[in-house]
Amino acid sequence: MMRADGVSDYESFAREVLERIGERPISFEVCADDEAEMERQARKIASWPGQVYVKIRVTNTKGESTANLVRRLSGDGIRVNVTALMTIEQLPAVRQALGTAVPALRFLRGE
Fold it and tell me: At what angle do helices 67-75 and 90-98 cross, to 10 degrees?
C-alpha cells in the first residue's frame, strides 16, 4: 500500500510522521518474515523517538508463532503491538509473551 502511494523509504516516511504527530503513540510494523530480521527491524524501530510501538504479526507467513520474539522484545521494555490475532487460541501465548512490564492492550493481560 505504501509503495502504491509512492513511499520508497520506510524509515524516512516514519520519521516524518513522527515529527508531525508529536508525542502521540503510533505503531510501525516490521516488514520481515524471518524471526532474526524481524527482531533486528523491531529494535531499530523501537529506537526511533516518540511513543513508538513495534507492530509484530502473531505468526509469520509460514504460520509460525512469533511469541518468542514478542517475549524477548517486551522483556527488554520495547512497546509491542501484536497484530493479526485470528483465533481465541492465540491469546494465551500472546498474553504470556507480553508480560506486564510493557504497555499492551489491557484485555490481553487479563486486566
Answer: 20
Q: Which one of 43, 55, 72, 79 is the catalytic residue?
A: 55
**Cell digits for 74?**
517486551
Residue count (the chain): 111
All three cell numbers of 92, joined, read: 494465551
Range of the domain at 52: 25-100
Taking the whole predicted model, whether its pTM rises above 0.90 is answered as no
Active site residue 62: no
**Domains identified in the chain, total number:** 1
Note the pLDDT tens digit of each residue in 32-63.
889 999 999 999 999 998 889 998 888 888 88
d(CA 56, CA 32): 10
CA–CA distance, 62 with 13 (Å, rounded to integer)? 28
